[in-house]
Specification:
Elements: H1 9-33, H2 44-52, H3 59-92, H4 104-117, H5 122-143, H6 145-148, H7 159-182, H8 185-196, H9 207-221, H10 223-231, H11 243-265, H12 271-283, H13 287-311, H14 320-341
């Protein structure tokens, strides 16, 4: 009997993507049905029909409509974080790299928390988060442009980029701690929830989906180059890969995905770390399969985590970032142990 890893690439991509698409639809449907007031399976077809017609009349249809927005935000956020992790791991050639490792998320947090501290409107908070992420990205590029240009050859190190990101992230964390220490009590709870990561109250917007679609298109078009750079780093240039251009593009696109996710839901940890590694273990390292699989798996994972966050101690709701950390930390330790043994 053939396994997914033994199938031809195109057929394997179709099989994996199709299966994970069904899982994603099931996760979204489960999120809509689950809550303080559950929606019975028998009521779902009629409720969905009312929603498609634009006239939710029953309680089941109203509950599905209410929960659908939050589930879609969670799915878009997870679907951005996990491909960002895949691209970051391809850039740094480290299967345990994280989309937050370069400090772009921390920069977005500084901008958003500064706007919250000044009691700005939510639209201003989102713009400040994007501005913070862009500022950190530009600073990183200016300080580590030699690495991103591939000046050391195809196997040129990314140590400067990595260390610069860690230092900038530490600086941003210090600024965040300072702002939290001087924040008034009336703003502190919302600031802490945003720092931990939460999708409650986040609006459904088209921009994160547009960013996600563009990033996935880029990743699929450059999947061969990422495969070559991962497997033959020493000779990637001689094999026709524009290493410097690809590194800059990976840095830019992963940064945009991270900024989009953080702007929508705050800093949600471990999703972009454990899911890419799990997908690579399950479906192989071929980025033609890995990228779409990671997007669908990441979205489904965060939808289920958010459903757990709002139901485990209902009616009180937990920040989804705390749930992903509780689930992700032991999984990461297990993956690290397996990696070291391998």
């Amino acid at each position: 009997m053939s396994t997914p890893l033994s199938l031809p690439p195109q057929r394997r991509a179709f099989l994996v993507t199709g299966s994970l698409l069904l899982v994603a639809l099931a996760a979204l449907l489960y999120a809509g049905m689950t809550g303080s007031i559950a929606v019975a399976v028998a009521e779902v077809p009629a409720a969905l029909g009312q929603l498609f017609e634009g006239r939710p009349q029953s309680l089941a249809a109203s509950l599905l409509e209410l929960r659908a927005g939050r589930a879609l935000v969670a799915f878009a956020t997870g679907s951005a974080l996990v491909p960002a992790g895949v691209l970051m791991q391809a850039l740094l050639r480290n299967p345990l790299a994280d989309p937050y490792i370069l400090g772009i998320s921390a920069g977005a947090s500084v901008g958003a928390l500064a706007a919250m501290l000044l009691m700005c409107a939510m639209a201003t908070v989102e713009m400040a988060a994007v501005g913070g992420a862009i500022a950190v990205s530009m600073l990183l590029y200016a300080l580590a442009r030699h690495d991103l240009r591939g000046g050391a050859g195809a196997a040129g190190g990314t140590s400067t980029l990595l260390l610069t990101g860690v230092i900038i992230s530490s600086l941003c964390v210090a600024l965040i701690t300072l702002m939290l220490s001087i924040a008034p009590e009336s703003r502190l709870r919302s600031m802490v929830f945003w720092m931990i990561g939460d999708v409650a109250g986040a609006p459904v917007r088209a921009l994160p989906w547009i960013v996600l679609a563009g990033a996935l298109l880029f990743a699929l078009r450059n999947a061969r180059g990422m495969n070559v750079m991962a497997l033959h780093a020493e000779s990637a240039v001689t094999l026709g890969v524009q290493v410097g251009s690809l590194r800059r593009s990976l840095f830019l696109v992963s940064g945009i995905l991270t900024a989009s996710a953080v702007t929508s839901a705050g800093s949600i940890g471990f999703v972009g770390l454990i899911v890419p590694h799990a997908c690579r273990f399950a479906f192989g390292p071929d980025h033609r399969v890995l990228v779409p699989a990671a997007a669908l798996a990441g979205g489904s994972f965060l939808v289920l985590c958010d459903t757990l966050a709002r139901t485990v101690v209902a009616p009180q709701q937990l920040p989804v970032g705390a749930v992903t950390a509780i689930i992700g930390a032991p999984i990461f330790l297990y993956q690290l142990h397996r990696l070291r043994r391998g």
